[in-house]
Write a structure and sequence with these properties.
Blueprint lengths: L1 H11 L3 E2 L5 H9 L18 H23 L9 E2 L1 H17 L8 H19 L9 H15 L6 H13 L9 H7 L2 H5 L5 H14 L5 H7 L3 H16 L6 H14 L9 H21 L4 H8 L9 H10 L8 E2 L5 E3 L6 H16 L7 H20 L10 H23 L4 H37 L1
Antiparallel strand pairs: 1-2, 3-4
């Protein structure tokens, strides 16, 4: 472990340069586009070819990767510094190789991945926010940072998680076949056999992307992303959770995500203020101290505290271990045949952070449904084209008969509740969450009025292409 870290720090001095970064202007332009306008063809936001999409995605990923590298060197993040030319070239080459792995299907293409990356970058900026007030008073600064950390469940202090979130958006549909997982299972496709009929396309995307990252030509990029085995585990673990969560058609995966959400957010915490946070944290620490004096802490006590405010620094591993020794019920950990605990439960706000990022990823995957109606219509048409192509090749069902009503049902039962969930349970996303809900409602109302006509146009266009 020490060897890996020492090797990284020898190289890390070459990761940052002080020359003006050419990508910063590009990143700032993309990040300042209003959420509703993402995907519209204005100010060069929507690229016209793969080369431009590669450059755009590289620019966005570079911003978040620089935060990771700077945090390891314990330096303040500055937007006017950039990665070295060599490292930027590796990052760009990786993005280009990923682009080449995407198939030219109608919907699940590299253009879709680029749109999800753009939406993920925007939503992450909304989550983290920017301090508008500069105060030299260290106490005030610490107080603001503490409140910001509470608002984001610690994500604001985890640059690697931030980078992983945007990285997952890039690779989540690599080599998508343009047909559903269910169809791959039905056909007995080799990928279905390899991944045991579960989240086939998502698992394949993860496997291909990580295998590519592990090639010798991306050694510097790997060192920049994860410098230690622990960071590699954190990166890979979160990446897997994020990509698998996009398989919304899998009942088992949906049940897992819903169960994690209920465990992380058993009650509504909307409307919390810094004062209630501070008081709750103080009361919680006092209560923990009392319990430590009376007896060993139980996992049940920990989960009670976990539901409202950030917990104290009592190790959850110790609680699980003590619970096991006392013959209590074990929840949220794994144990081998020797009785040794092999995996701890998420500690503190890690569960909330993981669940929040997962649901943000699911939202970004269908971001077009909560943006301008023209963007919604563009991707709705492409999805129809992809499904209709699968139907014509006997690899899917006829989607036309239920397309109009199906889109209303999808907005009502999945999109709007997902946006409301983020608005309600994350203080930092309450404002943008309200906008997402309103946009989805507006698109639903307009589709309700015009959707049948558009559905007929989609069908006629596909029939003409066949002639």
């Amino acid at each position: 472990k020490m060897k890996v870290r020492i090797e990284f720090h020898k190289m890390s001095t070459n990761y940052i340069t002080t020359s003006p970064p050419p990508c910063i202007i590009n990143h700032n332009i993309l990040s300042n586009v209003p959420w509703k306008s993402l995907g519209e063809d204005n100010e060069g936001v929507v690229p016209t070819n793969v080369e431009e999409m590669v450059e755009r995605n590289t620019s966005l990923l570079e911003y978040w990767l620089r935060k990771v590298v700077r945090s390891r060197d314990e330096l303040e993040f500055e937007s006017d510094t950039q990665l070295s030319v060599a490292l930027r070239e590796e990052l760009r080459n990786y993005v280009a190789r990923i682009a080449a792995l995407y198939h030219g299907v109608h919907f699940h293409s590299f253009e879709h991945a680029s749109h999800v990356v753009l939406s993920a970058n925007s939503l992450l900026h909304h989550l983290l926010g920017d301090d508008t007030v500069i105060d030299n008073d260290n106490k005030t600064k610490r107080r603001r940072n503490s409140w910001k950390q509470f608002n984001t469940y610690g994500i604001s202090t985890r640059p690697l998680a931030q980078f992983t979130f945007v990285f997952a958006a890039l690779i989540h549909d690599v080599q998508h076949e343009g047909i559903s997982n269910r169809q791959l299972v039905k056909e007995g496709h080799p990928l279905a056999m390899r991944y045991n009929d579960r989240s086939i396309l998502e698992q394949n995307s993860l496997s291909l992307s990580f295998e590519l990252l592990m090639l010798p030509e991306f050694a510097n990029l790997r060192c920049a992303i994860f410098a230690t085995p622990e960071e590699r585990h954190s990166f890979r673990s979160l990446l897997i959770d994020l990509v698998l969560s996009t398989d919304i058609s899998c009942p088992e995966q949906t049940e897992i995500e819903n169960s994690k959400w209920k465990l992380a957010f058993p009650s509504n915490i909307a409307g919390a203020t810094y004062e209630t946070y501070e008081q709750g944290r103080k009361n919680q620490l006092d209560e923990c101290q009392k319990k430590m004096c009376r007896r060993r802490p139980s996992l049940t006590d920990r989960m009670d505290h976990h539901s409202s405010y950030p917990t104290s620094k009592i190790s959850l591993y110790t609680e699980i271990k003590n619970t096991a020794l006392l013959g209590g019920e074990l929840r949220g950990c794994s144990m081998d045949y020797c009785g040794c605990i092999t995996q701890d439960f998420f500690e503190g706000d890690e569960l909330k952070a993981n669940v929040l990022l997962v649901n943000m990823m699911r939202l970004c995957d269908v971001a077009h449904t909560m943006q301008d109606f023209r963007t919604f219509l563009k991707w709705n048409c492409r999805l129809y084209d992809e499904l209709y192509s699968a139907y014509r090749s006997d690899q899917g069902d006829d989607c036309f008969s239920n397309w109009y009503k199906g889109q209303i049902a999808f907005l009502d039962t999945y999109v709007i509740p997902l946006a409301e969930r983020l608005q309600r349970c994350c203080p930092a996303l309450s404002e943008i969450g309200g906008e997402l809900v309103r946009n989805a409602q507006e698109n639903k109302n307009r589709w309700n009025d015009e959707g049948q006509a558009y559905s007929n146009v989609f069908l006629q266009d596909n029939l003409r292409k066949m002639m």
